[in-house]
Design brief:
The complex is a heterodimer of chains A (131) and B (404).
Chain A lengths: L4 H8 L14 E8 L4 E10 L4 E10 L2 H14 L4 H5 L3 H8 L6 H26 L1
Antiparallel strand pairs in A: 1-2, 2-3
Helix pairs in contact in A: 1-2, 2-4, 2-5, 4-5
Chain B lengths: L4 E2 L10 H7 L1 H4 L11 H20 L7 E4 L2 H15 L6 E5 L4 H12 L3 E5 L9 H7 L4 E5 L13 H11 L2 E5 L18 E5 L10 E5 L28 H16 L1 H22 L3 E4 L9 E6 L4 H7 L3 E2 L1 E2 L12 H5 L4 H4 L2 E5 L6 H20 L2 H7 L13
Parallel strand pairs in B: 1-11, 3-4, 3-5, 5-6, 6-7
Antiparallel strand pairs in B: 2-8, 7-8, 9-10, 10-13, 12-13
The chains are: A alpha+beta (131), B alpha/beta (404).
């Protein structure tokens, strides 16, 4: 399969690869996918609690080049956004950005799910802290 | 050293220069139709075909009159299964094969099932082998044909063909084997192995594409086949169509070369294959060999690199032409059915890479490949959440994955 230049670029130079402290109260971790399905994405966000914006994001992905590129793009896009803005990122935006072929659309769906899962994780942590 | 390096000899092989030289006159100067019995052009073509037939027969210890030329092994497999099923349907409607055969066998079996034949698909053991005992246990009074591959195209595992042939003889059932990956790599003898039908392809043994053969036994028993392609009655009426003379000449030469250097060539390839495997496993943890540790064709190395998805691995080592059992390389999203049926979990099947070495592979290329593989796996493991979790001692099986 031929990859687009952008997919190759994100694969070869992944943005924000790595980990954040998953135990920190202002870090949300979302992990989606399954090893049996051939892709697992872990996306982490660090929230600036004063402004309620995402100040840092990191990812690690087990999956094909398109899955790696999708998660790399997702981390780039969520940085600097409020949680509500991050929640409005759609998988179709990623498909368009990377020109993913139909067979790779599930990679973009996973990336969207990963953002949502990370935000949910952070919100739950915050709720627990209050209680 | 030229890049990229070809390590996909299971898929196809380059035409050997000696084969190419033998073929060239048959396109322009010696262009006759081998069926033209009434002039010099036809006679020369016919004698070239006779020589090719003899050379191909020798590769498998057959007589030249038992070789039917086809367009390739897919056609040979179709002809063997459908031709036998149709010819012997009075006797029975049951066939036995394995779940890890090439698609040319499996899809043909599915076709026959629609025509009211029944097929038993034997499951291999975890090394990819089918035992003669399993074949014997599956034979019923309605069984007409057993088709088990000589060596597997993904993991290279060699089956106990002689033992299976013996069982079939004892029970009076015809035995077909797809020997595409085995030819030129392990000794084949249709007599010693009790084989009644055998499929071959030229382009897997350094011959041209578009030519293959089906061996059809003539004595003890005399095997009959219903043809699929009807026409001028070529190839003893089993496969009509003007013979591909240059293809047959090339196939014959390729078979001759395969026999000429049989031992030294396969020993050399196996040494390089082991060098590749040792280089990989000495530097990387959690790499798993798929297939049989010893009963494996010389050029095959199929490895699962845990926690690294196969397609991304290939993307990172573009200098190596290999293939993967990962789902992402196929149109379906399922990983390799061969690995799955051998009991390799989907998680590891997604991380598998098949290296195929051959006649023109060099030590320099293998050393380059080792470096490239090791560096790419390390880089992608740094990027893999699974590797990080495994290193932290988390049991990945204990996690509730979301799937999709």
């Amino acid at each position: 399969m031929a990859y687009t230049k952008k997919v190759i670029d994100h694969y070869e130079n992944p943005r924000n690869a790595g980990s954040l402290d998953k135990n920190a109260p202002n870090v949300g971790t979302g992990m989606v996918g399954a090893p049996e399905c051939g892709d697992v994405m872990r996306l982490q966000i660090e929230i600036d609690e004063k402004t309620n914006t995402i100040k840092d994001a990191k990812f690690k992905t087990f999956g094909c080049g398109s899955a790696i590129a999708s998660s790399s793009v997702a981390t780039e896009w969520v940085k600097g956004k409020t949680l509500d803005e991050a929640l409005s990122i759609k998988n179709t935006d990623i498909v368009e950005e990377l020109s993913l072929p139909p067979i790779k659309i599930h990679c973009s769906v996973l990336a969207e799910d990963a953002i949502k899962a990370a935000i949910t994780d952070y919100m739950e942590k915050k709720k627990e802290k209050k209680e | 050293m030229k890049l990229p390096i070809y390590l996909d000899y299971h898929a196809t092989t380059p035409v050997d220069p000696e084969v190419f030289r033998a073929m060239t006159p048959y396109f322009t100067e010696i262009f006759g139709n081998a069926s033209s019995r009434n002039h010099e052009f036809g006679w020369t073509a016919e004698s070239a075909v006779a020589q090719g037939r003899e050379q191909v027969a020798q590769l498998i210890g057959a007589s030249e009159r038992e070789i039917i030329f086809t367009s390739g092994a897919t056609e040979s497999d179709n002809l063997a299964l459908i031709g036998i099923a149709e010819m012997y349907q009075e006797r029975g409607n049951h066939l036995i094969t394995s779940s890890i055969e090439h698609k040319a066998i499996l899809d043909t079996c599915a076709y026959l099932e629609k025509k009211d034949f029944t097929v038993t698909y034997l499951q291999p053991d975890q090394t990819g082998q089918i035992s003669a005992e399993a074949v014997a246990a599956a034979i019923t009074p309605r069984t007409i044909l057993v088709s088990i591959m000589a060596a597997n195209n993904e993991v290279g595992t060699i089956n106990p063909i002689a033992a299976i042939g013996k069982v079939c003889k004892e029970r009076g059932v015809l035995f077909h084997t797809d020997a595409v990956q085995a030819a030129g790599r392990i000794p084949l003898s249709v007599e010693a192995m009790g084989i009644d039908l055998l499929s071959l392809s030229a382009h897997k043994i350094y011959g041209p594409k578009g030519i293959g053969a089906l061996y059809v036994r003539r004595r003890n028993p005399r095997v009959r086949l219903a043809p699929m392609i009807h026409g001028g009655g070529h190839e003893r009426g089993m496969r009509s169509g003007t013979l591909n003379v240059p293809g047959i000449v090339g196939f014959g030469k390729a078979a001759e070369l395969a026999l000429r250097n049989f031992e030294t060539e396969n020993k050399g390839i196996a040494l390089l294959r082991d060098r590749l495997w040792n280089g990989i496993r000495e530097q990387l943890d959690e790499v798993y060999l798929n297939g049989h540790p010893t009963e494996r064709v010389s050029g095959n190395l199929n490895v699962s690199f845990a926690y690294v998805e196969g397609e991304s691995l290939m993307m990172g080592m573009k200098e190596l032409a290999v293939s993967s059992g990962s789902a992402c390389t196929s149109a379906s999203l399922e990983p390799s059915y061969v690995l799955k049926n051998m009991g390799v979990g989907d998680d590891l099947a997604h991380t598998s890479i098949r290296f195929g070495l051959g006649r023109f592979t060099t030590a320099e290329e293998i050393d380059f490949a080792i470096k490239k593989v090791v560096a790419t796996v390390r880089r992608l493991r740094d990027l893999s959440p699974l590797y990080e979790m495994a290193k932290e001692g988390i049991d990945l099986k204990s996690i509730q994955w979301t799937g999709h």
